[in-house]
Amino acid sequence: MAVFKTHCIALAVLVVAGIVISGGRVSAQGCQGDLQGLISQCSQYVQKSGAKTPPSQPCCTVVKAVNIPCVCQYITKQVEQIISMEKVVYVAQYCGKTIPHGMKCGSYTVPKE
Question: Which secondary structure element, helix H or strand E, spans residue 108, and what is its range?
């Protein structure tokens, strides 16, 4: 179960483009960006547990290369059980990615600040 959570936490975000969750493995298809990098560099910043903390520079580097609107289309309820979509949006914005207010990311709607 812990391996499944570790693989799914990416993001998200932020994360999670063309996601197919199967047997604890995450594979991406169709969206621009380094999704394995998202998992390894950003997962700790978007987990539901813990406080909201600024992401690392390596996380931001990966986030800047991801097509967020594309990724958001593939956020599933399973992913949302593990990651905080509020934290995903925080990390993306902290890293300089513009996420339009009102955009849906999974079932989460990006609020006005």
Answer: strand 108-109
Element (H, E) at 87: helix 85-94
Where do the domains of the chain lie?
A: 2-109
Element (DSSP H or E) covering residue 37: helix 35-46
Q: What is the pTM of this model?
A: 0.72
29 pLDDT band, cuts 50/70/90, is: low
Q: How many CA atoms lie within 13 A of 63 on its CB side?
A: 29
Pick the residue with more confidence: 39 or 29?
Answer: 39
Structure tokens at 27: 């594979």
Pull the structure tokens for residue 10. Answer: 């990416």
Closest CA to 46 of 14, 93, 81: 14
